[in-house]
Amino acid sequence: MIASIDTSLIDWSRAQFALTAMYHWLFVPLTLGLGVIQAIMETIYYKTGNEFWKKTTQFWMKLFGINFAIGVATGLILEFEFGTNWSNYSWFVGDIFGAPLAIEGILAFFMEATFIAVMFFGWDKVSKRFHLASTWLTIIGATLSALWILIANAWMQYPVGMRFNPDTVRNEMFDFWAVALSPVAINKFFHTVLSGWIVGAVFVIGISSWYLLKKRETKFSLESIKVGAVFGLVASILIVWTGDGSAYQVAQKQPMKLAAMEGLYEGGNGTGLVAIGLLNPEKTSYTDNVNPFIFDIKIPKLLSFLAERDVDAYVPGIVNLIEGGYTTNQGTVALSAAEKIEKGQIAIQALADYRKAVEDKDQVAAGQARALLDENFAYFGYGYIKDPADLIPHVGLTFYSFRIMVILGGYFILLFIVALIWSKKNKFADARWLQWASLWTIPLAYIAGQAGWIVAEVGRQPWAIQDILPTGASVSKLATSSVQTTFFLFLLLFTVLLIAEIGIMVKAIKKGPSVN
Asked: Which stretches are transmembrane (predicted)?
């Protein structure tokens, strides 16, 4: 069946999933960031008893609620697509991938769904302490929801804690904690949540700046900016640390992604990091000997340090990863792509031989086939790869997305520092240039988040599960026309939802908090 799936079906299925995921990520980061900020503000109200902070919290809570409601709709569709568009994937690893998603639904989603009602409708109906607890439990539930989804995603990038059962042709979990606490999962969780915190902080500062530009709600705006600037600066500093961890994990677990992020074709010792560079569009193949850059400025030896914590360490490039032969950081000689493909084909054939032997009740042949399968299963997914060049992700998209994310991350740190200093000196209310900059930073925060996900997901192609299952072998056998139809239906639906959310938010913002 896999051999009969056409490329256009794979591309349209990927496009539909990417569309849903990218729209969903327009709502999630604001939920994560604004949720914590409103909880901090309510904590100030609880400590001080000042009604100003209660009304301030209620205003930001209203915007949180609008965003939260729309985000739930896109998230539900995203999970259903695993069954409709990626049935081979769901069959092959559903026993593992489904566990974190089930926990997310049973624990985290129900937790936030329970306490969000008290948070919105419990003012003056429950005690201040219980209401504050409900607010914090709502955002903790939303954050735990993100945790389990990111654990599932991290497992796709670094599959651990599993065994392959040739009798069912399914991967089965044997170590839950290896999946839940993998270094990739922990780092991905903190990095992603912190990016949401930054979006929330930028949103609060930007909307507050709009009020200052309109000469409205001055006290509300200045106090909100102080909270947002401190919160955003802390998140931005922490995300530099998790970003370094991400680079290290990618280097260790997904070296081809790292090579694409850097446009690195020929690796070496003491490799520099490209600070600024323009890729050469004439570079169309890893074998064409064309310089990959029109120009580039590198920070000497920094990539080696980030990848291996050693300024003189060897970092393989795309060509090296395809051709193999270099010494890995474990001291072994790296296999070439051709050798991995051969081992993958052996594993696939061994699986077929095992199932045939079991059917024929030939225990000796079954044992031999099982041993051969176990020996080569680490390269199982490579057996579906037709051309070594297919192992290279889209270099341009990965390279530029990574730099957009990093450059904007540096800009956010600068913005938060300036906003905090100007606030402390009581200059923010008169700094119209800073107010305009803060307002127009809101879309940049979303662009940075989207760029990060492009690096994570485009950079790991062609793999749905790293080294074990390529995207082309994961897709459902559907009519391409049906996927195209639902793609455009989702595009229309999500666009309408986004326009509706923006419209409702703008109306609420124009009405204002009325706390002055």
From this structure: 22-47, 59-78, 98-123, 135-156, 189-213, 225-243, 400-422, 434-456, 487-506
Domain membership of residue 286 (yes or no) is no
* Nearest to 286, CA basis, from 388, 399, 379, 401: 388
Distance CA 208, CA 290 (A): 50
Amino acid in the structure at residue 125: K
Which residue has tokens 């199982």? 380
pLDDT in tens, 356-410: 999 999 999 999 999 999 999 999 999 999 999 999 999 999 999 999 999 999 9
Domain tally, the chain: 1
Q: Could you tell me if residue 480 is inside a domain?
A: yes
On the CB side of 107, CA atoms within 13 Å amount to 14
In a domain, 419, yes or no: yes
Evaluate whether 282 touches 306 at the Cβ level (below 8 Å): no
Which DSSP state fits 327?
A: B
Collapsing DSSP states into helix, strand and coil, what is residue 436? helix
Return phi, psi of residue 161, to 5°.
Answer: 65, 30
Phi, psi of 279 (to 5 degrees): -70, 150
- Helix (H/G/I), strand (E/B), else coil: 49: coil
CA atoms of 2 and 70, how far apart (whole Å): 36
CA distance 390 to 387: 5
Phi first, then psi, for residue 474 (nearest 5°) are -100, -15
Q: How far apart are CA 221 and CA 209, in angstroms?
A: 7
CA distance 489 to 236: 37
Residue 369 near residue 357 (C-beta atoms within 8 A): yes
Query: CB–CB of 60/41 below 8 Å?
Result: yes
Q: Is the pTM of this model over 0.90?
A: yes
E-state strands within 87-169 = 162-165
Task: Print the domain residue range for 58.
Answer: 7-259+396-504
Q: Where would I find the H helices in 267-425?
A: 302-308, 318-323, 337-359, 363-376, 395-424
Helix (H, G, I), strand (E, B) or coil at 509: helix
Is residue 282 within 8 A of residue 294, CB to CB? The reply is no
Q: Is residue 297 part of a domain?
A: no
Token duo for residue 385: 């790869």
Closest by CA to 323, choosing from 346, 309, 298, 341, is 341
CA dihedral sign, ordered 229, 234, 237, 238: negative
pLDDT tens, residue by residue, 246-301: 999 999 999 999 999 999 999 999 999 999 999 999 999 999 989 999 999 999 99
Within 10 Å of residue 289's Cβ, how many Cβ atoms? 9
CA–chain centroid gap for 261, Å, is 15
